Amino acid sequence: MANCRAFAQVLLFFALSCQAAATYAPVPAKEDFLGCLMKEIPARLLYAKSSPDYPTVLAQTIRNSRWSTQQNVKPLYIITPTNASHIQSAVVCGRRHGVRLRVRSGGHDYEGLSYRSEKPETFAVVDLNKMRAVVVDGYARTAWVESGAQLGELYYAIAKNSPVLAFPAGVCPSIGVGGNFAGGGFGMLLRKYGIAAENVIDVKVVDPDGKLLDKSSMSADHFWAVRGGGGESFGIVVSWQVKLMPVPPTVTVFKIPKTVQEGAVDLVNKWQLVGPALPGDLMIRVIAAGNTATFEALYLGTCKTLTPLMSSQFPELGMNPYHCNEMPWIKSVPFIHLGKQAGLDDLLNRNNTFKPFAEYKSDYVYQPFPKPVWEQIFGWLAKPGAGIMIMDPYGATISATPEAATPFPHRQGVLFNIQYVNYWFAEPAGAAPLQWSKDIYNFMEPYVSKNPRQAYANYRDIDLGRNEVVNDISTYSSGKVWGEKYFKSNFQRLAITKGKVDPQDYFRNEQSIPPLIEKY
Questions:
Q1: Could you tell me the pTM of the whole model?
Q2: What is the set of domains in the chain, with CATH numbers?
Q3: 379 pLDDT more than 80
């Protein structure tokens, strides 16, 4: 075995498991971080900056092209584990040799902090791309899913086992399970079944000491924190056990666009009151772009029962049987995200070529907007460099759950969430979209949540604040600035838990939870 390892260290050329490229890592001259890794992890799973495949592996799941430019600080190494022991070894070696780890599952971190640093830092990335197994137990209505799986792969595996089971997580199929669950995770089932994190019943996580823990071997606070407290702060979650939820054999989807000339302002003005008050079986979100508001709905039932419900609750929209698209729940996922032409194969697509430059922000709304504000919003959406607004209604289950049940605190009283999204496709063209994002965010301030102005952790926004590091520890005071916007009063409990689980702040980035050490 020693001879084989020595031979591997000399050659270090192995076929990648999913492509015909070769891997190269330099032979370590001494017991350094790489040498430590190579004692336990096959060289074909390690990529140094000098590797010809390093740029491809790094870029593979960078979803926002802003974070692939030369100005971004890149990892010294990328580790692509295939099992939990590889992750444990990475943590032990990182602690021993002073190399921090960042963790990437699907690459959708809006600020790219799962694979880049804003300031010079010695770090490696644990890329979970090869750990994406899904095991469904239809009888128990549970599933184990590894953090590197995409949501689409989870949904597909569930539906393959049973067409009448589902899971309430994000809308976009290419989002990684690890990041989505860690920050909360919600989609078209949020009004019926809440967020992904509250439906997680067990985890396997590698802690800062390299130990593999599950619910039975970790503290109650640690288990609470990993389910919605943001990715990476409390260890590396290897896999999640989730409880699956019943859905009917047939669900109904509609998409109804309305322009300003067709009454979009009045309709959205009505929707902000109707959407959060509808039965939990019906979710109607709004995508506002340019002069058009598109009402996208998922109803857990047939067109026959949806049509009279819409006629009684929201007749102004003019929904009728012509708008209905009946299908199994699993087909609604690509339909809503990609449109009528999309199929189930799109749920398994890991070769996403849509990698724009992008800026994102978010808000929570507790009081309905006056109609003139909606008129002004559509004015903003018509400006040069304008992005879009995606608005998800709350109410029903997501709002009935207590704020402290999970770190995700946006519950009772929320009417809807807003995501501001802006794309552009060449770096020099970013000035107008970035300015628009900043300006509309400032314009909205009087009309959205206050003290704090809330944001969704999975819509990460570095403009809300950055950690300051003093004596090699992120300070609680700097983290509180942004942390209470994501987590409200739950932030303190998260920081206290961090102080118990990771007091030396090994797992950190610009917006990781800082440790708060309780003094007795």
A1: 0.93
A2: 31-125 (3.30.43.10), 132-244 (3.30.465.10), 249-326+355-453 (3.40.462.20), 471-519 (no CATH)
A3: yes
